[in-house]
Structures are given as C-alpha cells and as structure tokens.
Design goal:
The chain contains nine helices and 16 strands. It is of the alpha/beta class and 284 residues long. Among the domains are: 86 residues, Elongation Factor Tu (Ef-tu), domain 3; 106 residues, Nucleotide-binding domain of ferredoxin-NADP reductase (FNR) module (Rossmann fold), CATH 3.40.50.80. It has a seven-stranded mixed sheet, with helices on both faces. A four-stranded antiparallel sheet has the order 1-2-6-5. The longest helix is centred in the middle third of the chain and has 14 residues. The chain is globular. The structure holds flavin-adenine dinucleotide and FE2/S2 (inorganic) cluster. FE2/S2 (inorganic) cluster binds next to loops.
C-alpha cells in the first residue's frame, strides 16, 4: 500500500467529506488536538486539517474536510484509491488532557469533527463530557451519533431551529447553566465569531475557556510567522504553540482581520477553478 492513499471516502453532507488515508507514521504518534498539512498536487496550497481519528494498527488517519475555497474543493473531489501528494504531521501541540471535572466540548459546523478527538481523550481521562453541537441547519450538523455514543450528554442547536434547540451554541450553554449544570472547562472549535462569543460567555459563567485557532498557515512548523495570533498581549505561533490556547485573552478581532486579508484573491481563485472544472465526482 502506498502512503497518502485514500482508503475510504464518505460524503457527510453536501460540503463535508470524510477521508481515511494510509499514513502509518502519523497514525503511530498522533494525539488529540494535532493536525496535518495536506497538499493535493504539485504547486498546490498547503492546507491544515485536524487529525479527527487514527488507527496505529491499520496505519490510517481520518480527516474531515469542508469545501470552502479552491484547495478544499479540489481535495473533496479526490476519490477512493487516489492519493494526496503530501500529508505532513502530526503538527501542533496536543491539547492538555487531564481530569477537569465536567467539561463542555463545543463544535460549530466542521468544528464538530475537530473537537471530536478532544472529547474522546477527555472522556478517557475521566471527565464528564457534555457535547454542544451547533450548525446553521440540520443538514450541516455532523457526527451527532458518534458524539452521543461518546459523551455523557449531547445538546444540539441550529440557527434555523430545523434540529435541536433553535439558536446558537451560546444559547445552549446558557440553558445548560440555567438548568444547574456546573461546567469547569470548555473546549471550543468553530467559526471565529462563534469562538469569540462562546468563550466570552464561558468566562462570565466561570467556565475556563479554551479555543482552537485557525489562522492562515504556511509551513506549520514555526518558521514563516504567518499564523501569528495574540494571546495575553503576546504574539504566539498557532502552528507550534497551539492551535488550542486558553481563550480568555485571545485577540479574536485581530484573527478575523488576518484571516480576511486575502479574501478577494481566494474568491477569484475559487471562481476560476469552478469555471474550468469538469466535475467527475458528482459534487459540483
Ligand atoms: C489547525 C487548523 C486545523 C484545521 N482543521 C480543519 C478541519 O479539520 N477541517 C476543515 O474543513 N478545515 C480545517 N481548517 C481550515 C482549513 O485549513 C481552511 O478551510 C482551508 O485552508 C481553506 O483553504 P481553501 O483554499 O479551500 O480556501 P481559501 O480560498 O484559502 O479560503 C476560503 C475561505 O476560508 C478562510 N480561510 C482560509 N484559511 C483558513 C484557515 N486556515 N482556517 C479557517 N478559514 C480559513 C478564508 O478567510 C476564506 O474566507 C483548519 C485550519 C487550521 C489552522
Ligand atoms: S504556519 Fe508558519 S510559523 Fe506557523
């Protein structure tokens, strides 16, 4: 079996795909909170994605990718039996796993997949784990069954009320708090505004917040400085010191500004790709 081969591909919804990839060395050392950098082809962009699962016996890793721009759209068009050009990792600092007591793992959209390995490790460390899963609409809510099986309690919220409670993950956390749940720590992964408001709320409710940051990354090994974020007034490199940080003092507004820097070019690049792309996978 050749490394980087896609052994399994499953569409989780219209934009999100799960890939099981043959990569024994990464499978042997991956830890919760770490990620890989993928390239699909020569000259292609380097894209960070979270290690959602790994199996050291089979030599496989699992990633779950949301098609959002050109590179992720190209990745999600790859088929079982095809290969990623490069799969580099495991990268990043693993999340500190210990017994915090009761923890909330909060995922928004594809962030649900990213928080899943953290939920699993926290459960194995003896925590009572409450999953709070949010999405715009029912179709976009992924991995509910897996989270249900793993966690002590699962609460779902959709913006349009098509599944679970109507509202955002912040509404779900407030409801849990008002019902008497005493949560000690919260691990949040999702869109940046969602992480900003969720960690603010957690701080107000005396829940120690942690958030996994997703700045634009290039090398992923601390050399380019592209992934700079500000935490407690200090510049930190998310690729090596994170991506998970204590969230109370993260400068989320700076992160929003920095990830928006290349929006016009990203849009142009996706449009050019979609114009020329002849779909073979039935997704586009
Ligand atoms: C540590 C880490 C782990 C990640 N894990 C996952 C994962 O498990 N699954 C997944 O689907 N995505 C994950 N992401 C986000 C993923 O890397 C981006 O969606 C991807 O780089 C976008 O590339 P693109 O060419 O398709 O889109 P682009 O055209 O580059 O960007 C499209 C849009 O996405 C935004 N964007 C660009 N780079 C990022 C980024 N790094 N993070 C978030 N938004 C970005 C842009 O502002 C723009 O609005 C992760 C990011 C980081 C930093
Ligand atoms: S991505 Fe280059 S230093 Fe972090």
């Amino acid at each position: 079996m050749e490394e980087n081969t896609i052994l399994e591909k499953k569409n989780l919804n219209s934009a999100v795909v799960k890939f099981v990839i043959y990569k024994p060395l990464i499978a042997a050392s991956a830890q919760a909170g770490q990620f890989v950098i993928l390239r699909g082809r020569e000259g292609g962009e380097r894209v960070p994605v979270t290690l959602v699962d790994w199996d050291s016996t089979q030599g496989t890793i699992t990633v779950i990718i949301q098609a959002i721009g050109k590179s992720t759209t190209m990745f999600n068009a790859l088929q079982q039996g095809e290969k990623f050009l490069n799969v580099a990792g495991p990268l990043g600092t693993p999340v500190e796993i210990k017994n915090y007591g009761t923890v909330a793992v909060v995922g928004g959209g594809v962030g649900i997949a990213e928080v899943y390995p953290i939920a699993r490790a926290l459960k194995q460390a003896g925590n009572r784990v409450i999953a709070v899963l949010g999405a715009r609409t029912k179709e976009l809510l992924i991995l509910e069954k897996q989270m249900n099986e793993l966690c002590d309690k699962t609460v779902c919220a959709t913006d349009d009320g098509s599944y679970g409670m109507k509202g955002m993950v912040t509404d779900a956390i407030e409801t849990l708090h008002n019902s008497g749940e005493k949560i000690n720590a919260g691990f949040v992964i999702g869109p940046i505004p969602m992480m900003k408001f969720t960690t603010r709320l957690m701080d107000k409710l005396n829940i120690v917040p942690y958030a996994s940051l997703n700045p634009i990354m290039l090398d992923g090994t601390g050399m380019c400085g592209c992934c700079r974020v500000t935490v407690e007034g200090t510049v930190r490199f998310a690729c090596v010191e994170g991506p998970m940080f204590p969230a109370k003092t993260i400068d989320f507004d700076e992160l929003i500004r920095r990830t928006s820097e290349y929006k016009p070019q990203e849009k142009q690049s996706l449009q050019a790709y979609q114009k020329d792309h002849v779909c073979k996978c039935g997704l586009h």
